[in-house]
## 1
Amino acid sequence: MGRRRFAAVILIAAAAALAGCGKVTGTADLNALLTESWRAYSTGDFDFAEDTFRRAAGNPDATAEQRYGALLGLATTYHWSTSPDLSKARESYLELAELGGDQPRRQSVLGLAQIDLAEGKKAEAQLGLMQLIKDFPDSLEANEAALHLADSYCDPTWDEAQASGFALPSDEQMQRGIQVLQDRLESHPDNPLAGSMHVMIADQYIQLKEFPKAVDHLLMADKEGVEGVLTRVILLWRVARIAEKELKDYELAEQYYERYVDEFPRYVLIYRVMKSLERVRALRTAEES
Amino acid sequence: MARERVRFSQIKRYWPLYAMVVPTLVLVGLFMYWPAVSGVWHSFYRWDGDEVATYTGLQNYGRAFTDPKFGYAFVVVGILFVASLFKMIPSIVTAVVIHRITSDKARYLYRLLFVVPMVIPWMVVLLIWKFFYNPIVGLLNSVLNTTHLMDVLVWANAWLVKAGIVDSAAFVANKSPAWLGDPDLVLPALIFWGFPWIGIIGVLIYLSGLEKIPRSVYECAELDGVGWFRKFLYIELPLIATQVRINLVLMIIGVLKGYGLILVLLGDDGGPAGRGLVPGLYMYYNAFIRREAGYACAMGILLFFLILALTVINNKLVRVEK
Amino acid sequence: MATPWTRLKRYPALLLLIIVYVAACVVVIGNVIRGSGGAPGTGQKKVLRFAHWQLEPGIRNAVDALIADYEETHPDVEVRQILIPEEGYFRWVNTQLIGRTAPDMIECGLGGPVAWSLWPKFYARYFLPLDRYVEQPNPYNKGTQFENTPWRQTYFDEMDGGYEDTLQSYYRVPLSAFTVRLYYNKDMIDEVWGETFPATYEEFIELCEKLVEHGEQRGRELVPIAGSGYNFRQFFQTYQAAMTAPYLDRLDADYDGSVSRVEAAARLYSGQVQMTEAPIRANFELVRELSDYFPQGFMQLDRDEAVFLFLQGYSAMITTGSWDYQSLGVQSEFQIGIAEIPLPSKDNPRYGRHVAGPRTEAGIRGGFPMAITRFSENAEQALDFLQYASSLKKNEELNQAMYWIPAIRDAEMRKELKPFAPRIEGYSTALNYDGPGVELAYNQALPLYLSGKISYEDFAEGLYEAYRRDAPHGVREFIRNNEQTLAQQMRFAAVRRAAIAGAPGAEAAMSGDSELQYKSLIEVYVTQVASRANEIRVWAESAAESAPQTPEPE
């Protein structure tokens, strides 16, 4: 009797200890489960996200759309968690492509290309991204693919053989990256990421010290509209500063310094901008006279 | 009654005994052994202390062996270790003095007086000492000024500088020495910390050893005309060698891996010129400030082996003759 | 027969222990009950708990007054303050959040080097994102000029103090703002110098000399400036910003308006920028000169020790923030004056020509930031309370009571705090001396130079050697760590893309417009990619420039 009582105590204690381990979602609805999974992903609870996405993907009652969502979520979780498991992410993306249909295939190709980039398989990544742009030219993913493709040409890479630990891209590689974006902008000038594309091109021209072209693209980015405050404040400063220091285009510099003062009166560079505005106005006056 | 050996095959009969040990084993495994295993594991990784970990092989160890700051940290801790050896003496002497008090009540009272300050948290003691060392309002400088010992130190310092024995003057007329802010005074301040160095735990441990010495031994010694110092040297000290050895091991471990004192007194960079940078503090700096926890783990493993070696040497050298 | 009481009396220590333990249990249980909103069934009110570490005198009373006003208009709500000392605050928050027992509103941001990387994780896991609320007007601004203004635009910093960059979302509701100034013992300064505080650095040094003489005359050591490592930094940063401003144009390779730590480190590593250049040398020589008026070994002193010296009259001046205004005022037995840290005048023969201007305070962000815990049962009510506290009228009243600077535009601060009003004119620091990997060597060497143990040449040379030895590894680690941030952007972009691509559940899981957010995230990603590429380029070019040259074959 004592032994049974003891065993019962152990069982109850184990049950109590393990009771907190499982997460009871309380949702029968698969869509609600997927919502919770995405929320867990976005808040960094990757273990929970992975577990629920996997369950959702394996649920026999899931519709095709739900299975697509679950597989995409699973692949995304493996891919972008703080301790990514790229091989499992790759498997999930491949499984996603097997669902068929354009949407899953686009997500799959983009994800696989990004994994290739992360693993240093640049050539494979570039092939994948080019294929995505070619097969789905009007898609949102093609825009992002163009950015990643351009970045793959222009991005410095880790190289311990170099004294600095990095290998810089050659000018030709950078021009190639710029060309990728210019082709995309030519074929899809009003795509939602056009602003970012112009900014990326401008960044490359700044590195190449081709300032007139850099400013042209910054102006185009401004025209397309740049949402982020951080990006916009840098853009205005860049145009004004490069126009003043490199291009000696004081009219353009004045215009953009004025815009900075109007839009960002409490940002950290405001005093420099105001001083620069005075200086540029004086230079313009001197020029005109 | 002879002790019965319980064989594992008899577990069916004695399983409650095993079951009672399991929770403790689990907790010890989880909170003591698992972190150590994790530390060894992560020493082969570039790890930020959180989730990011990339395998780097022996790179962290290679870096530790060539890191001049890590090497210097061992010099500092070596000096503190030698000083700590001498700082063990007051505890032994105190225990002997208390032990020799003839009145039981007085002996109890003195023991109580030494134990009562134990209730003060260690951090409070550290902060009080930090205040003692304050150059303007600290007690140490006040005492030195009031007793004119400061003038003696100033004169001595000037003489040493003139004789070319030391480079710089830490004690200058009309300037309060910065015990924790002057690189030449940091180590002396760390050594002086805790004056008069009577560690109550040590005293109690030695007292427990001394109390085991039979009265008859003392009576024989008195009959033979043995003086108080020879009693200490030939009777008491050998008979508390076990306790001395225990304290020596604890001291080795404590000094070599400790850094809390220096962190509070000098900050995470070890003070001016890093004069107080000990291996433990350097590990802390790399783990939590630089966020290179993998490298800190590698340093910790090297430190572990050093402590282990010193403990083995200690056990071989300090023999206990019954 | 001996009773238990008789037996217990034989062990007084044990008896004392039992009494103290029982008393402690009673107090703790009482606190827990009070802190968790009362015993169950003690009323129908919603209980909100508001936790912070501001133990300075006056803050608790001011918050209590705000709470009383709120409860008057919301009789079904009770708000309780929970005050936790600064030293243990982060650990307390950590355990409360993990244990899901955290208060509804928690002040964020504290914790030091260990915590800085953990707060973003806390926000992501435990706190409510506020994006959908910040674009709506604050209902408590009805009848004011902000009636139709989005909540975040009512802030002096547009609620930047509440924005978490790493998560691209608003998580905090700042309630105040802070700036740093020089506090001085007005009675002593008036006696020694006069009523007008020195306006220039030269006059300031003269004042310090007079204070030293004054101390000698009184037979008491008087240190003009109560310094510690913490306080000294405020002086140093002021002069650093003033004297390194011109380096922006020289070192900002990508024209983004700032010189990153890697951009600076690369130039110091390669020798393109030398520590012996006139403005840099002037910067250090100035602070070395100033150090003579700090306590000996001040870099190892604590902030509290410096405050002690000031309040006890051993020092005449101290730099600290507006957060200390009331506490210093309450504790001092003398009048306190506030002044700017004086800069060298243009005529100063040693430093004048290197001073571009003061240090700017444009870009400061709101402080005393409160976040709402996600699992709070009264999250909506907590939000309502914070909106109340950050309305124009109430934020003004709260900060006037706390002697702090309001976070809301047009809210009036106390006239005594006018000297703390943020200064927009000025420059930010354009050159940091402690590059990645070199921080330890720099922090260890600086006290030696400031105390006069080593010359400037030795300090500069030692720092250069530290760059040659430690910067390569430090820069690589710095860049590797920043790559985590890039991945973070992509993590959020991926879920937004999934939402746009129609993945079930993705849109519902996120707040805000996914297309807009996606575009924004990609923009930030592109900016960060460019920044990284620029840093690597600058580093690689500097490393190549300074690589040992292979001798030409004869």
Note: Chain A has a mean pLDDT of 90.
## 2
Amino acid sequence: MVNGLTLGSVYAIVALGYTMVYGIIQLINFAHGEVVMIGAMVAYTVIVTLTGAHTGLPPVLIVLLGLLVAIPACMGVGYTLERIAYRPLRRAPRLAPLITAIGLSIILQHLALIIWSRNPLPYPQIIATVPYQLTSTPNGATITNVQVAIIAGSLLMMGGLLLLVYRTKLGIAMRATAQNQEVAGLMGIDINKVISLTFVIGAALGAVAGVMVGSYYGIAHYQMGFILGLKAFSAAVLGGIGNLAGAMLGGLLLGVIEALGAGYVGDLTNLCNLASWSNALAARCESDPNLTLFGSNYQDVFAFLVLIAVLIFRPSGLLGERVADRA
Amino acid sequence: MQNVFDTRNNPQLAWAGIALVAATLLVLPFALTYAGTFWVRITNQAILYCFLALGLNIVVGFAGLLDLGYIAFYAVGAYVYALLASPHFDLHLPFWVILPIGAAVACLFGVLLGAPTLKLRGDYLAIVTLGFGEIIRIFLNNLSQPVNITNGPQGIATIDPFRLRTFNFSQRETILGLDFTGPVKYYYFFLAALIAVIVINMRLQDSRIGRAWEAIREDETAARAMGINTRNIKLLAFAMGASFGGIAGGMFAATQQFISPESFILVESVMVLAMVVLGGMGNIWGVVLGAVLLSFVPEILRFTVEPVQKALFGRMLLEPEVIRMLLFGMALVGMMLYRPAGILPSALRKRELEGGKT
């Protein structure tokens, strides 16, 4: 459950990146997962160099410095993406930007491969994890300081983003652009600037998420962005795409579903529960009590199943409004 | 290209052109064998990619439904063949029985994917199909427990080649004084199949169904208003595209004689999509051209990149594989920005993609 919440808050932050861009220009930024990956990689480089240089800085500061470098790097990537691939195609049919996004995501992945090699990079665990007991039983739920930091950090960012969108001038401009670009333009809003800023903010969130994933799993890989992006997108859809609160809720929910699902599906589909039905089955269970139909290696499937289920039963998501089809 | 092969207005030139192409295609494998049997294998793979690209073209090009998990059907076809013709289950059915089964199973999966996604459009559909492709791959990877069906990540080996009574496609033989190696035999079989598929596709495009797909692609709401059963027609697009993928998968399994989930990763889906996009969505010849280009360019790169880099920098800086993927990505982006309708655009697509917002 705690693992689920931690994972969920990371998903939520990545999902925010998707949902903001979608909200404003109705476009799925396929390359967003790659932005997260770049964030993790850049921070990795900074952390490793600083740790290797024996600067004597406290570990927390090193991670923060890594973040501080990763955020502008990702902002740059986000801006470039928007500028090269999306802006020229803003008025093109929707298939076109989708395909450029896939192309960009491939390019980013392989650039990262060239820079950071194809091997998984071990994220240095410079902050010692300290588990705290939540319950008095020895094998009860625990929460580590890293998990606390991740959850608190993402809550903080979500709050900040909500303030930004609903309480500042830029936020008003963003919401106006989302509703109607032409009219917003007539009202004196620089639409290009607002859209660029949306991409940049999304990318900055992505950078933070990247560092979180890196330090949580202790590993960074040039392909990590893809599956993460996919899950975060599922989370955004689950919550109602284009809706900020929805993305947060969806992310948290998805994380919990995934963690619980992976934890229990093995027990639920354990064929040994049916051992009384057949002697052959019972005999096999004698030798191997973990005769499961679906083990935790199916964890990744849950996100997609959730996604498909949501799209069938409630396409607008949990918190989304029904939107008319765009022909 | 179209003008040269215009049989109606200029029959002499057209038939001469067709004869020339046919002769080239017939002699091609022997010419390639001189360069190495390896090149014949690549040609066979290119033909399989043509199959896949044509199948995907039905879904993306004709019906306008972006499918990013297309490789899953290829995987299904390949695994059906592998399971029914290998020592894994000790089943050895003949290929002409399995290929239709593979097509049917892939078709079933196509409907399975299509049914829940009917209401979705554009980007949502892309993501769901992508997820579907991944689900299939995860299952292939993990279905080795508790009952070993797919043999997990190790894949299935020693798959039977195509066999017709005593005629074995994988063995070397001399017929009429000509030396037929295994790949050369497969080449002729695949070529014949490819021509059949192209003809089917051309007939489909002009048929009632083809026109219905086009109508859905242009404007689904209007198509429905015109009395087209959009649900069935879309399902049909998925099913037909999937069955072509399934057949290609069976052929792939037979030529490679070994398959594993590794062969069916997302990148492959993207590559097939790149072929369709590069050649020209909706145009059969364009798609074939795209498939041929994208299958040969990486192989040529493989042979040129290394010496060139060694000559320039004295060592290997970038692996050909990486360069290939970078080029893919850039091709996708570049095509969309500068020539969105593809190298050989279909007339309608061109109007749609270059005429601004529709």
Note: Strands of chain A lie at 121-122, 131-133, 142-144, 219-220.
## 3
Amino acid sequence: MSARTSASPQVIGALARFDGRKLATSGWVLVGLGIAALGTAAFVSVVFTDASATWEDDVWTAHVGFMLLAVFTMVAVNWAALRDHREHTTEQYESLPADRATRIVAMLGAAALPALGSTLLFGAVAWFASTQLAVPALTIVHVLHNGALVLMLSSLGLALAAWIPNPFLAPVAAFAFYLIHPGESVATWHAIWPMATLLSGGLAIWHIAYLVGLTVIFAALAQARWRARGSQAIALLAGSAIVAVALTVIISRVCPTAGSCLL
Amino acid sequence: MTNTIEFEAVEKHYGTLRALDRIDLTISGGVTGLLGPNGAGKTTLMRIAATVLAPDAGKIRLLGRDPELADERVEIRRRLGYMPQEPGFYRNFTVFELVDYVAILKHLTDRKSRHDEVRRVLGLVDLTGASHQKVRAISGGMRRRLALAQALLGDPELLVLDEPTAGLDPEQRLRFREVVSQLPGRPVVLISTHQTEDVVALCERTIVLVGGKVRFDGTPSALATTASGRVWTAAEQDSLAILSWRMGDGRFRHMGDPPTGAMQVEPTIDDAYLLLAGRSEAEVGS
């Protein structure tokens, strides 16, 4: 039967807490946390041992670690979302009142836990750096960017699981995101890369808006696989509008000079 | 009394195969056993009763509600317990986690009362000791009990159990009968099975489905009665018999139209079912 049911916020909350606990202890997320910790340790070590260390030149080890945490979280969310496909439980759970679209929303809520963890940990790194080094361009927005990236990639993992239920696709897509890093020679259009870090706080806010827009789009696409309703269409339109405005601002107005605003 | 299951001229097709052929059925209480050979349409009927499959034609009401309407379907599902024929499991979850997860999907949101409910149903199926084992580490029989446990969550008013005793050892089957017969609130239970012993032991009503049609609907004893005068024993195999086999004492037990002077015996539900299914399949085949 077609899934066109609803669930209360209590159900979504309970599911999100359950899946959040499972996600936080999943092998993928733990590996991501380990890499983030290694990157952070390397940065801290340089700060203490190298007098010429600077935020701009040396924080990249920690930054890369947190990007990989986001990538591994995406894979973990995708893997969790593919549980029914993998374990052949689809029919069994079709007879339950909470439908698959509800479970997608809950899984995105569950991804808030690693997103929060990533934000807090990177915040701690930034705070530590600010006590040891001059960190002129760093704002709270840069710290929040990590959490937004985790949520956006998690949402993409859900959309992939809904439309192309193949467990190999998410790792390939995730690492493709990471590997297409524009590197040192950056151009303005590289701002569309979700992992780009914009130097000024004003720019970074628009990049977070861009990530939020993508999160809404991917979540709506994932839900639409099981529950095609007006609310999904509205979410798609809203997400697209946010993305369009954010990119327009970043590329056309706020970031006019190639290579001047991307880290 | 409100009828719990109402099927009116229900049809379901898979391509050219007619899995259910204008089924009319009303179940208002007790434990009903659904018997039938493989391919008779039992699982299709069970899946429709569990709201996971929609019929191609006909009307259905479950627990007084229309499963075609989204809001009413949710209400049905809140009051329904379903154990599919081949239940799947998240193998990396513990037994407790799996039932807890299903409990949330069943809208049991308060953590404490939900956990109490999970412990209760695990106790009912004798899995308390395995609560913290990973599902992948437990035996096939334990997994079937786990599937039953998740179906029992929240004291459902309607329990749809598709071959619940398949793969269980005799002791576990007896335990299953005990659990079903002692369910609180006396829910309406629909059991699909190949085990006629389970029907005799548990069911107040038996439905025999063959070729997508209801061939018998009545009590188990009435089902056995349909074979009266059609079962006999003899020292030799009888070519007139539809079915026959040699028993432990060396004599042959025959079913069909007995010859004159045959030593007729009291039929069992097995005899009746085999005669009904065999005859009906022959009719369907012809």
Note: Chain A has one domain: 9-254.
## 4
Amino acid sequence: MIPLQFYLIVAAILFCLGLFGALARRNAVAILMGIELMLNAVNINLVAFWRYVKPAAPTMDLAGQIFALFVVTLAAAEAAIGLALIIAIYRSRDTVNVEDVDLMKW
Amino acid sequence: MPIDYLPILVMVVVVVAFAAIALTLSSLTGPRHPTAAKLEPYESGMPPFGSARRRISIKYYLTAVLFILFDIEIIFFYPWAVLFRQLKLFGLVEMGVFVLILLIGYVYVWRKGGFNWD
Amino acid sequence: MPILVPDINLRIIAPALIVTVTAIVVLLGELVTPAERKRWLGYLSIAGLVVAAFAAFSLWGANASGFSGMVVADNFGLFLTLTIALSAALSILLSIPFIHAHEIDQGEYYVLLLASVAGMIVMATATDLIVIFLGLELLSLPLYILAAFQREDTRSLEAGIKYFLLGAFSSAFFLYGIALVFGATGTTNLAKIAASLAQSAGSPMLSIGVGLLMVGFAFKVALVPFHWWTPDVYDGAPTTVTAFMSVAVKAAAFGAFFRTFQFALPALALDWRAVAAVLAVLTMTLGNVAALLQSNVKRMLAYSSIAHAGYILIALVAMSANGLSSALFYLLAYTVTNLGAFGAVIALSDGARERLEIKDFAGAAREHPLVALALTICLLSLAGFPPFAGFVGKFLIFGAAVETGWAWLAVIGVLNSLVSVYFYLRPVVQMYMSEPAEGWSGIRVAPLVALALLIAVISVIALGVFPAPAIALAAGGLIR
């Protein structure tokens, strides 16, 4: 069986890639995609931990799996709100570049 | 004790180094043979038609966002479907409440004209 | 495959349920209410909050938990529930005339506010990391929209998108922290985490997880160095929304913060108390110093709210029963005081034209003596002058710190309070000492704003002069 560490490393790499995307990109949609990648990295962690940490009774305690489902739905709600805000700002400013959204200093 | 955190430091270094090395190596050593077919955007196996850069009406975004919401919330049916015999009437009622709340959202969007294309 | 169905105990989540149902009713009401009657949706929302508060009060002392130990109705959570309901009700009183003047009076405003309140109540009463995360998201998502609710105003949109991007970013960290804690202990239940850690030593994975949890909470309550979104978001968002989120989010997030760290992670206290103490010093100092430099009242109150988060964090560092109750009292005192201050700022605005620069307040005392007095009382309370609520709150928190051997932290807190006196008094000096600026004549304070202001100021004075009952309630609020 593949050791738990492999899953954790994949998740950590995925999380870092998403983090890099969220920090390095200037396009609000791309930042949003980076954040979604981070959330999905966590999902890999949750399901891997669920399977490996308590292998005796994985069918009794579904916390890890159910948590992943919640994360998926919350990510969708977050994406919907994010896209709506990005569209609203595009309509008023003709840009989705966060550096141009600077009426107030950060 | 600070020394207990040494593994964390090691892990941070390893993660950063791994990401840096993997990205550098792949960009330096990877073969590049771009062909027309390889450069085409991936469309889940469908042959792409037209340019992806043409403008899409912004109204489409509203439809897309609504689709995401109603589509993903259905995911909660999955655990219910697996256990629905065991949960008996209680599960059915709970799911009814859930669907009712979704339905109220649907009615709201409908009455607000979210589905009107024109 | 046998699955345990959790014990469904609707009574203990009654406050959150009532708020949710009210939100749904208001959403449907929005569809059938003509434009000139939208304010009734606001009254309906307040009614729902009052019922929810009664439900919370009827559960006082019940100490019941349900849903497999995921949610609890203990006095700690109920005290926070009442604080949150009060802050929401006062915010709605301020909002009804405000959103009318700014031509954004839509029922969705109240729906989003109530949804956020439901999330806050869930977060404050949750005893499972999954539920805490759910509550956090449910409180945050509506606030992103509310911050951008003035769609015609690009500053409001900007506040919304900044809040959203940073909020979503921080929840990813928080979530990663939960996943690592889950991996290290095999559970997401706070009591079981505590039990598991009492038996086995920590691991590096657990330490990273706890660190990420702290980062997530620090973002939500705006601790330095995770505060940089706060001034822009508070500045750009509609003033009533700023008022609401500056107090209610703190109450909910600090509730979960205390519960998670003091209750589930005492085994790691040596490490996180040191980190929290450093964060508290940074937060108080930077918040107060930056507030000194502001010329805009909203930005000043934003930095002031950062500084107050630092004071409350001292109570967490103290990690005692007194620390917990002093934090509860402080959150209540801060809620009424800050809402009073924002209410006075709203009362001094001229229809849709707001006066937000400190120099705009010149001579306000001559034109609006009562509003100026209310603002003065609230600012003095924020600065920690007796006999107002803020003084008692600071006294209790610093006392709790001294008791547990963190006297140096209390000293830094006192020094910070002294610094803060300067910027809190600047608007007061403008109001009383300067000649009136143009355009004061003919401004009428909306009755609802006056009512909210009255409630807030009476509470500030009452909590300052007769703090004993509230302290007794807060002292009963131990986490079970």
Note: The CA atoms of residues 62 and 68 of chain B lie 10 Å apart.
